[in-house]
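Take a protein:
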Amino acid sequence: MSRSSLTAINLSVAVLSLGLTPFFKKTAIAGGIEPLVAALGSGLVAALASVALLRGAAADQLACLFRGPPVKHLVVVGFIASGIVTLLAAFALVDTTATNRSLFQSLYPAATVVFAWLMLGERLRGKQYASIAIMLVGLFLVNATGEGVRFGTAFWLLAATLPLVGFSDAYAKRFSGEVSPLLFSAGRNLYGLAFLILCLPAVHQPSLEPTAGWLWLAAAGISTSIGVFAFYKAMDRIEASLVAAFVSLAPLTTAGAEIYFRSLRLEYTQWLGIALVIIGAIALAVMMRRT
């Protein structure tokens, strides 16, 4: 199989997996799984799956998860990106749609651009400001009207994930050359899981009764692991900005799943908002490629 075909497959898998993950988590929480337990359950599956992938493809790198220079970096990124962000998003899904969660994920590259400017001194151009503004208008349209999405606690929990992701991505960029995509994916998920385990005592007698929600939770964990792996694998082959542009289409996967399986109804203004977020994300990625 040609290099371009493998890249196309990785991009498609990343878009589908990262788009379905919020849908799976929303369905699990709607099925009675507590948010922290949902975050922990999907985090456990993601960590196991990504470590298994690392063991199968590069077993010699397993030791790097626990010792050596990369560990401190993996801990920081894991605690923030796969720990705190995952937890905030899980609580937000109680009151908002998976599509809204997915749209916030599309804004993460914009947050990364801003923090790369703040932390790494990378230049932020006027057109990049314009793209970010377009995406923010899109988020406003999605959250201002329609079924199941509104300004409130869920919106602000998701908004809080933006600077966290921006910081962790800019931080990770400093050592990206030291860590392979497989090791990065495994370390991020493993230490994110460790953070969530530390938070578990905050749940008072969590319900562990068998429900259909657990199956959706397992699906979310597997989907997360596959999506993150495919994302970083694609970045091994083409420019990161191009990968980000393709992954910006993930909200369409999420919206399609919610419309078909959960009978979600979106107003025209919300579809416009989704389009603006995706257009802004793609434009931002293209500009990043040119810099």
Summary: The chain has twelve helices and no strands.
